[in-house]
Write a structure and sequence with these properties.
Layout: H1 3-37, H2 47-53, H3 66-71, E1 81-87, E2 90-97, E3 100-105, E4 111-112, H4 117-128, E5 136-141, E6 159-163, E7 169-173, E8 179-183, H5 185-193, H6 195-199, H7 203-206, H8 209-241, H9 248-274, H10 289-294, H11 308-315, E9 323-329, E10 332-340, E11 343-348, H12 359-370, E12 375-381, E13 399-404, E14 411-415, E15 420-425, H13 427-441, H14 445-448, H15 453-498
Antiparallel strand pairs: 1-2, 1-9, 2-3, 3-4, 5-6, 6-7, 7-8, 9-10, 10-11, 12-13, 13-14, 14-15
């Protein structure tokens, strides 16, 4: 082998060794927590959970029109979203302005600027299924704890927190009165063993969003470099000799690295990409259809032709309406009457109930929205496919697929029940779909459809990565111990040279 090649290989191995000493514990934490994350997620309260716990709307108790309710806020701008549902037994209008929410009681027209502790207790008790007297009040949280640092929960603080005899803990937003987080002993244990170490989601760090983001980016980027250098070194060692010239943990490390090193690199690298380290390369690369089709602001005056009470009465013939959402599609005002995310009806201002929007109308609306581009391909999607896949099968089906003839070949999956874009792709986001989701989650449709084949494959790969990390940890311990011992001997030798009789004194 040429001398320059030997020097390069030596430096690669040396850099990989010392980076491995630093990052081996992190790799082990990532792989071990990966086992848990297959089946345990970070606790979340989804819209479906709120609907499941929610009460049905009683049209007879709604005495205030949307326009009067909105006027009670003395607004300076139109809302981005309006919902009508039940809070503590009362119908309430929820006017949202981005992430800011205001509440007006639908029976009296009074504003509810903050949810008081007695109301929050009743809301939490109804959610948990315990009498209010069983609650252990944990206080009003003004600083995020481990379960509220998530970006989906944090904006709704402060939180009234209650604990229950079964170990469940419920968080009620003081701003909205909704349960925004709920944890159980099992979900907390799963998160402590899974998502928290995997995402470095420690509350003290996660409270500082930018610091947390940069920490994960730099650690995962360095981890990807470590695994890539190790893969190069392993190949360079093995293939000229056709054997592994080591014994003990080092031999096992090279052996496992040759088999699972590529997987370790792609997993860490895709995790690095998940943090969007290059925002200029991954920015919006397709038209924003949601804004074009549904508008950005809602005008309550446009819902005067059909009162919410009438809409609830119409929809009540087919479902128990738990939420009435005010919406717009292609310039027309309409309501979404919802019992569950998959059981809803469209209530237009004029005409009867609809289960879904007509596909031809969706296509026409998109063509007008994206002009001078146009819809090139349209088809119904009745099952999951490479760019529309969900291991938990929560994404709606069927949906309408539309592909444009613009420069980025933009593609959209639109839910005909709501007219909303569920997923979309452009040139850059297609790469992201495979480089992150494809490499990190192995979310390949045919594999997802053949579970437990996906589970078995992922567990085998995680076992290989865990073994690789354990051997790295054993080697790191030897390196650190050897280096520390050498420095001690060196210091001891220097002291003896300076004063051989020092130990006598």
């Amino acid at each position: 082998m040429p001398r320059k090649a030997i020097v390069v290989r030596t430096w690669i191995m040396r850099i990989h060794r010392w980076m491995g000493v630093v990052f081996c514990w992190l790799f082990l934490a990532w792989f071990v927590s990966g086992f848990v994350m297959i089946y345990c997620r970070f606790p979340h309260v989804e819209a479906a959970d709120r609907l499941a716990h929610g009460e049905s709307l009683d049209a007879g108790r709604i005495h205030i029109s949307p326009a009067l309710a909105f006027a009670a806020l003395h607004p300076s701008t139109a809302p981005t979203r309006i919902r009508l549902n039940v809070l503590d037994g009362q119908p309430v209008y929820r006017f949202e302005f981005g992430r800011r929410s205001r509440i007006v009681l639908g029976d009296t027209g009074e504003r509810l600027d903050a949810v008081a502790q007695p109301m929050a207790l009743r809301i939490a008790a109804a959610w948990a299924g315990f009498p209010p007297g069983a609650a252990s009040f944990q206080g009003l949280l003004t600083e995020d704890d481990q379960w509220t640092v998530d970006a989906a929960v944090h904006p709704y603080g402060p939180f009234w927190k209650y604990a229950w005899p079964n170990g469940e803990e419920t968080y009620v937003s003081q701003k909205t009165g909704e349960v925004v987080q709920d944890t159980t002993p099992n979900s907390r244990l799963g998160a402590y063993c899974g998502a928290i170490p995997h995402w470095l989601y420690f509350a003290k760090l996660r409270r500082h969003a930018e610091l947390w983001s940069q920490t994960v980016i730099w650690l995962s980027g360095a981890g990807a470099a470590t695994s890539l250098l190790g893969l190069i070194a392993g190949i360079w060692i093995y293939f000229p000799l056709k054997r592994i010239p080591y014994t003990g943990p080092k031999r096992w490390h090279v052996f496992l690295g040759l088999i699972f090193g590529a997987v370790a690199f792609t997993w860490v690298f895709s995790g690095f990409l998940s943090m969007d380290p290059f925002p200029r390369l991954t920015g919006q690369d397709r038209p924003n259809l949601d804004a074009a089709l549904q508008g950005i602001r809602l005008d309550t005056a446009r819902f005067a032709d059909k009162d919410p009470r009438q809409a609830i009465a119409e929809a009540g013939t087919e479902l128990r309406v738990k939420e009435l959402e005010f919406a717009s599609f292609d310039g027309d005002a309409l309501y979404f009457a919802v019992e569950t995310p998959r059981h809803s009806r469209i209530v237009p201002m004029h005409g009867g109930l609809r289960e879904a929007l007509d596909t031809a109308r969706i296509v026409d609306a998109v063509n007008r929205a994206v002009s001078p581009a146009a819809v090139l391909e349209t088809r119904a999607v009745n099952g999951y496919e490479p760019y529309y896949v969900d291991r938990d099968k929560q994404l709606p089906l069927p949906v309408v697929y539309l592909r444009l003839n613009d420069a980025g070949q933009s593609a959209y999956y639109i839910d005909p029940r709501t007219g909303k874009v569920v997923q979309s792709y452009g040139t850059r986001s297609r790469w992201d779909r495979w480089l992150y989701h494809g490499l990190h989650s192995l979310d390949i449709p045919w594999l997802y459809a053949r579970r437990p084949a996906w589970d078995i494959l992922v567990i085998v790969l995680l076992l290989g990565g865990t073994g690789l990390s354990i051997t790295s940890l054993l080697m790191a311990w030897k390196v650190v111990r050897r280096t520390t011992s050498a420095r001690r001997r060196k210091r001891s030798g220097k002291r003896s040279h300076r004063d051989p009789m020092e130990h006598v004194r």
